[in-house]
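User: quick one, sequence for these tokens?
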């Protein structure tokens, strides 16, 4: 080969650890061979994956050791990289033949997470676009369509009508929105699963209780897997509901906002379940710590009187209480981490629903006709009474004239407000107190 280009992810760099990777070999007409490293693990299980056997797949490993065990030479395509000072190709074979001329190799590092998640890469970036396609194929992730084709097209003989064009654009926008939601609903589950994996490690550099952290992570991951299974089983019924919602959305903005609020509730149901468990666990630990704190000052709660009484504890009771207090206190940071993250999800979801409900309420109660009458100072909205003296002579009776003036806009809106209630009333002061004490936010 005349030239070689090796594209590596940044993540594999680690001390005294071998990173096993998988990639693809692509060649073009300019005698340029490109090796894309797209997937990597810290164990050899990567080589045991069931994949389509092709000559374009390459396996190997990446290490900081001086000496390598050439244990993967049995593969048709094999690559071994050494990186003590700078990355160097220790061994390369393509098509079962060892490549000796690797001095002219160009090594390019890339951010694996950024390449996989980017939605704005253009096909004009040839090898970068190819890299993203290969990375997503390995993780079985489809590219989101940005070139959505309109379902309804405006006939040429109606092109001059702005109203007709707006109606067609409106229908296409609703269909595009529903299609995007149907395509990405499992992606939301994947993001939540990735978040749990991050929490099960050392989130933000915090040192959590490893055993308790793993237990909570696996327990919550199990519920996400159940939600994923539910989406797979009920996929056809969900499609029927989405089609039904599409036609309801034609009725106006308020219906669309209400539909979006319902979809947010459905899409975040699994995170809400995790929040309920985390909030309950946090509340139990806080209540236990408060109860055990009274033990150290010789107090206890009396449920009959509903107050705090003095109490003398034995040495055994003090010992058991001290051990229980220590256990709860040491486990509290791990619980607080999960509780904080999923409480933020819950509060954010409630905030979005609250804003949508306010928008619906504003549209339903907006007295547009009355406001127009107030602007033009119509007599229909004249309600302030003013008595003007016309004649006040001693020789004649007092003559007054009644004049009506337009009332203020605020009074006008209050007087003509329709009987509509806010569907989502939220008391934020109670929410703050519930978050601090671990009580469930409904």
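Assistant:
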């Amino acid at each position: 080969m005349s030239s070689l280009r090796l594209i590596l992810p940044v993540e594999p760099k680690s001390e005294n650890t071998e990173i096993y990777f998988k990639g693809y070999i692509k060649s073009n007409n300019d005698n340029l061979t490109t090796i894309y490293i797209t997937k990597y693990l810290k164990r050899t299980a990567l080589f045991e994956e069931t994949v389509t056997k092709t000559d374009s797949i390459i396996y190997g490993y990446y290490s900081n050791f001086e000496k390598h065990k050439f244990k993967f030479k049995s593969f048709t395509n094999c690559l071994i990289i050494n990186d003590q000072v700078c990355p160097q190709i220790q061994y390369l074979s393509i098509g079962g033949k060892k490549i000796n001329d690797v001095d002219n190799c160009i090594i390019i590092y890339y951010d694996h997470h950024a390449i996989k998640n980017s939605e704005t890469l253009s096909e004009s970036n040839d090898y970068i676009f190819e890299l993203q396609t290969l990375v997503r194929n390995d993780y079985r992730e489809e590219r989101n369509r940005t070139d959505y084709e309109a379902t309804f097209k405006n006939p040429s003989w109606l092109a001059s009508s702005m109203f007709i064009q707006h109606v067609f654009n409106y229908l296409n926008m609703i269909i595009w929105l529903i299609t995007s939601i149907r395509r990405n609903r499992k992606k939301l589950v994947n993001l939540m699963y990735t978040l749990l994996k991050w929490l099960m490690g050392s989130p933000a550099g915090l040192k959590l209780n490893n055993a308790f952290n793993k237990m909570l992570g696996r327990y919550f991951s199990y519920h996400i897997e159940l939600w994923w299974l539910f989406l797979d089983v009920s996929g056809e019924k969900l499609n029927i509901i989405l089609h039904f919602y599409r036609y309801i959305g034609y009725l106006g903005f308020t219906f669309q906002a209400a539909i979006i609020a319902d979809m947010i509730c459905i899409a975040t149901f699994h995170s809400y379940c995790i929040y309920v468990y985390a909030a309950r666990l946090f509340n139990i630990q806080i209540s236990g710590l408060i109860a055990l704190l009274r033990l150290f000052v010789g107090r206890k709660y009396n449920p009959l009187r509903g107050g705090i009484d003095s109490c003398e504890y034995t040495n055994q009771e003090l010992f058991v209480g001290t051990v229980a207090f220590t256990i709860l206190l040491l486990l509290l940071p791990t619980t607080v981490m999960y509780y904080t993250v999923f409480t933020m999800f819950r509060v954010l979801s409630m905030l979005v629903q609250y804003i949508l409900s306010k928008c619906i309420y504003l549209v339903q109660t907006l007295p547009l006709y009355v406001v127009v009458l107030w602007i033009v100072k119509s007599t229909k909205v004249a309600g302030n009474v003013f008595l003007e003296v016309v004649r006040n002579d001693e020789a004649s009776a007092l003559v007054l004239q009644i004049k009506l003036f337009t009332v203020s806009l605020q009074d006008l809106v209050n007087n003509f407000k329709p009987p509509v209630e806010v569907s989502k009333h939220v008391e934020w002061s109670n929410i703050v107190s519930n978050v601090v004490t671990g009580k469930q936010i409904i």
